[in-house]
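Fig. S4 source data, part A: sequence.
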Amino acid sequence: MADRDGSPIDLSRHRTGKVRFEGAVFDRDPMVLKLGLQALRKAGERAGLEEYLDRNGGVRVFRDGMRVHGYGEPGNDWLGLGARPEGPPGARIGSGMVLASVHLDGEGSADLREKTNREGFVENDAYLALAKAVLCALERVEGQRGTDKARMREHYGPTPRSEPVISRMAEMRRAIRGVADEKLGAELSAAMDRMERDYAATRATLLRSAGAGLNMCVAIHEMEKAAGELGESLEREGLQGGIAAAARHLEKIVRGYEITMMTLGPRAWPALQIIDHALSNMESRFRDRGIATVFGGRDAAAAARIRCSRSHAVTCLMSALDNSVWWLDYAGAPDKKVFASACPEPGGATTLLLADNGPGFPLPAGALAEPGVTSRPGGTGLGLHVAREIMAADGGRLSFPEWGEYRIPEEFRGGAIVAFTFEAAGK
């Protein structure tokens, strides 16, 4: 288990004993509360539930079945749920949304010492580790509950979940075809053409902005590291070669990320160039974390040409590679690796394949690219969603294959697999 900053949480370092955490999380969205009212057919039930959660919401602590006072009381946010940075709308679990309890074994939790006034534990290292572990578990629930929220909105929400604007435009097109007045129908159809062009242009601009944002954190990290290398070289005598090497490193980073900011439209690109560019931009992070790269199908990649926006394609691959970096660190594997390959598809398309030897995706494949759905503590749940939208805008497809669908070395079995399928360059 790891904290949101990647630092490990290990309760075995302290005498905390066996810890059992259980509870229920409530969705206080008005739509969901309304559904509950309809099911229960009780007037005023919504207000009653909200008031109950306001009074009793939180995480309480019990030791040998006896309540440890203070925790879970109104105003006692001992896990700091309300002090965390804002996440995607509706993603965070607050004290007023959860009824939960932590159960401890009295004999085994000797390092958790109660205060003299019996109002909670002394905030020593064992207590801090316990609080971090409970918070980490709740944040895992936060990411996974997004799947259920998305399903409820799919079935009960007011608009189609996927591409609602396009769905409404298609409905208007069908209605226009039924207009008896041909002149009026032609005018309406022309107006729809203008709307669709404007929508497509606006969507493309937003996707470029989103892709640039995904890369910003990585770029800042790389530039900070290069600047640090320059500073360290300056502090040492006579290491002009080190200064020059650090400067070249910084220049390479800037040039690499400059390409991801370009706005060239879809055109033919060598598949190998796209993969190499994404891996090159991640090179420093891989080196820092001891991640090796295994390249398969280089001959196929060298021969394949795909149709894409280069900046979009590199951004998508980097988003998946960024996930691999985090989960490989989280798993703490001593031999961390990432696999990259290009695979020809029927009809001339090419799939750029990425895999790692980490713990794999903890969420169902159908939920991985949904906005706000994440199992990564502190994550936004937007990286793979934006990558999926970018791929769709360029006529490609993002998918999460199962083991056996592609030829991947056995050492990557059980890890995460992400596939980016592009049209052939001639289409």
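Fig. S4 source data, part B ends here. Residues 230 and 244 are 8 Å apart (CA to CA).
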